[in-house]
Design brief:
6-stranded parallel beta sheet, 15 helices, alpha/beta, 2 domains, Rossmann fold
């Protein structure tokens, strides 16, 4: 049995790419022959360095040898590639339903679709005329495609499920993204440093600039930003470094770019707090990874981290904030009161199991198995 797994590019090494690789792994373990279709050729050695061990597919199909960094070009090529592949009879699993939630047999939605993000996300970089025009065109094309072909849609969180239903009228099933819980749990240390860590892709809209401002007020803590970067990250890095230097916190805020996987695990296993800065995050795999390693999550009181990971409860599985001043006070609380931290850790240890990679792979295999059975019966 063949399945084509389609993704724009795995070379970005983010959460969506972890989802794609885990889908490939789940289906191959379940006996499927998996063909990976991407826009650009996958750099497997880079993936293994930054994401740890990965299972490679049975075969690969791609359009370009070199890595594509321009978002609009990548998105356009991805949609055209997806429509081309749909001409065959092979089951297609799109692991980037953020761009197109139809055409493929199964679509996994990782984040807000661009036109929804433009409307509700409030990202600075989406305020340009170019972004507005691209969002309008993308919304129109998505509606047209949806009229011709419906898909089984999987949302990565209850937060995303509600956005898809209320904003687009799309019904979806929730399957939480895969987290290597045991890898991070086994690396956790009892002795912790007064370190606040954040892991993210270095792009505009992540609100990373609040970290130096918080660090200026909390002299007893060090802050580490672990960032995945590409060519488009250069202005983000420059801006962040300018703010760090301008506030005079270079001795307490460290920016680590394109760290290897082992470094990520080490940093999570020695820090006390994981700080999430993006307010419209749909889930946040790195948050759960840090929790499994023994960090207390501090997240904005909105989006998937608040609704799905913390269960809309403050102080049970982590803490939340609305204003930066509130984040500062809660960081101080965790650093100064070891009892508060330990009480939450006991709850966190049980909580993270519901987001494990094992659960993800089982649910993905069940969905594809069911779809194949329907196909065999001619439904």
């Amino acid at each position: 049995m063949d399945v084509v797994v389609v993704h724009p590019s795995l070379n970005r090494c983010g959460g969506a790419e972890k989802v794609c690789l885990s889908v490939v792994e789940a289906l191959m373990e379940h006996g499927y022959r998996v063909i990976l279709a991407t826009v650009d050729r996958t750099d497997w050695f880079m993936l293994e360095d930054r994401l740890g061990s990965v299972v490679r597919p049975s075969g690969e199909f791609y359009l370009y040898e070199h890595t594509i960094t321009q978002d609009i070009l990548l998105a356009s090529c991805f949609i055209l590639e997806l429509m081309y592949l749909k001409r065959g009879d092979t089951l297609i699993f799109n692991t980037y339903g953020d761009l197109l939630d139809s055409v493929a047999d199964v679509c996994y939605v990782n984040a807000l679709p661009p036109y929804i993000a433009y409307r509700y996300g409030g990202y600075e970089y989406m305020c340009s005329t170019g972004w507005k025009a691209a969002s309008i065109v993308h919304e129109a094309l998505s509606r047209i495609a949806r009229g011709f072909s419906r898909s089984i849609v999987i949302a990565n969180s209850r937060f995303m499920q509600s956005i898809l239903w209320m904003g687009l009228g799309i019904k979806s099933t929730v399957v939480y993204p895969p987290v290597d819980v045991e890898v991070f749990r086994s690396a956790g240390r009892d002795r912790r440093e007064d370190v606040v860590v954040t892991a993210t892709r270095l792009r505009f809209g992540k609100k990373l600039e609040i970290i130096p401002w918080i660090a200026r007020e909390i002299g007893e803590a060090r802050f580490k930003i672990l960032g995945v970067a590409d060519k488009l990250s250069k202005p983000v890095i420059e801006r962040l470094r300018d703010i760090i230097d301008g506030l005079g916190v270079g001795d307490r805020v460290e920016l680590i770019v394109n760290q290897p996987y082992r470094r990520l695990v080490e940093e999570f296993s020695s820090a006390k707090i994981y700080l999430q800065t993006q307010p419209t995050e749909s889930f946040g795999i790195s948050i759960v990874e840090a929790m499994a390693a023994g960090c207390i999550p501090l997240v904005p009181r909105c989006g998937g981290p608040w609704i799905d990971i913390l269960g809309m409860g403050d102080g049970l599985y982590g803490l939340s904030y609305v204003e930066v001043s509130e984040a500062k006070e809660k960081i101080r609380c965790i650093l100064r009161d070891e009892g508060v931290r330990m009480r939450m850790l006991n709850n966190i240890r049980r909580r993270v199991d519901m987001f494990s990679k094992i659960v993800f792979k089982r649910k993905i295999a069940e969905i594809v198995d069911t779809l194949y059975r329907y196909r065999c019966r001619g439904w």
